[in-house]
Design goal:
The protein has 355 residues and is an alpha/beta fold. It has 10 helices and 12 strands.
Length: 355
């Protein structure tokens, strides 16, 4: 046998193995390139789809001519401030919204009180950035904050809300409220308007990161409403409080618990380290402690005077007329909501006295 033959066979085998390995590497490289191309293609398609969806919603809903602007509060954070008034004033534009722009997309806080208002909000966001809308954080389920949510749902945003939201969604009174707004805010709230169910329900303090920026969702519980949360944009040091705080005006006392509300505000007052506080209504504040104090003092006073009346078994009308409201009577929204607030607290204090 030729002694060189094993050597030749070994060399041939080595070349064959190397060739196989090279082919495998080439296949893997080709596969990786194909995957990258597919990923990029899908991203392009998604961008096109998102653009198409946004173009559709911009023309889908009745036009609304409203004065609205996005005020820059910090490097990444903006406030859209509603006007003073009752729920059906200004085309329903009475509550605040806001948004934070990150490298990967936009976080929106609250969706305003109708789809056309949400469309106007989307337009203001697009004046600032073309980044995709990634998340809509709903601070609480009240009509003036959520009836615009379907616009963001329809363009692919993830809808996040606090525990307690489903109580509002499933309440017998919710269809009635929607029908009422279909009359009082016609044509902007109409048969196309629906109450959006959240994609995610948050039941505890939750941190998340988007585009290199950190956020904290703090679940408050049933204070102003059946379920409330706040959102902290950490990099800019800005807190969106929802209706836990009303800026420079008389708050609306909704369906939550005034005891819980007062406790929450007391807790918020401890060790505040914020640059700006954005309330659910009214001006943003660079003095968060003062903003908290106004809302807190109003609710505490309301509980004191209505609690005393309930304990003494007084009639509401007589009790209300006997109260000195001068500390708050000059504030915006006093004439619209104070008597209703007093009646709500009076009834709840009657229940508390029985318990």
């Amino acid at each position: 046998m030729n002694k060189k033959l094993p050597l030749i066979l070994a060399i041939v085998g080595a070349f064959s193995l190397t060739a196989c390995q090279a082919e495998k590497v080439n296949k893997e490289a080709v596969t990786e390139v194909k995957e990258k191309v597919t990923e990029v293609s899908q991203a392009v398609i998604k961008v096109k789809d998102t653009a198409a969806l946004e173009a559709e919603v911009l023309t889908k809903y009745p036009p609304l001519d409203i004065e609205m602007s996005a005020k820059k509060l910090a490097d990444h954070t903006y406030q859209v401030q509603g006007m003073a008034g009752i729920a059906t004033d200004n085309g329903g534009f009475i509550s605040n919204s806001g948004f934070v722009v990150t490298d990967e997309g936009v976080v929106v806080i609250d969706a305003l009180g109708s789809p056309p208002l949400a469309v106007e909000l989307l337009k203001r966001i697009r004046q600032v950035t073309d980044k995709p809308i990634k998340k809509l954080i709903i601070t609480h389920y009240h009509a003036d904050h959520v009836f615009g949510a379907q616009v963001f749902k329809e363009i692919g945003a993830e809808i996040i809300a606090p525990i307690g939201s489903m109580k509002y969604i499933n309440a017998d009174s919710t269809p009635a409220r929607l029908n009422e707004r279909r009359e009082s805010l016609k044509p902007w709230v109409n048969e196309q308007t629906y109450v959006v169910t959240p994609d995610v329900i948050i039941d505890k303090t939750t941190d998340f990161t988007l585009g290199g920026q950190e956020f904290t969702i703090n679940v408050v519980g049933a204070a102003h409403s059946d379920g409330d949360l706040t959102l902290l944009a950490k990099e800019d040091g800005i807190l969106f409080s929802g209706d836990i705080i009303f800026g420079g005006r008389v708050p609306f006392i909704g369906g939550g618990s005034t005891i819980k509300w007062v406790e929450t505000l007391a807790e918020m007052s401890k060790g505040l380290d914020l640059n700006v506080l954005v309330p659910g209504h009214g001006d943003a504040s660079t003095d968060p402690a003062q903003a908290i104090k106004l809302t807190s003092s109003y609710i505490i006073y309301m509980r004191e005077v209505m609690g005393a009346a309930a304990e003494d078994l007084e009639e509401f009308v007589e009790a209300y007329e006997a109260v000195d409201w001068s500390e708050f009577s000059s504030l915006p929204a006093f004439d619209n909501v104070n008597r209703m607030n007093a009646n709500t607290v009076f009834l709840s204090m009657e229940e508390e006295s029985v318990e």
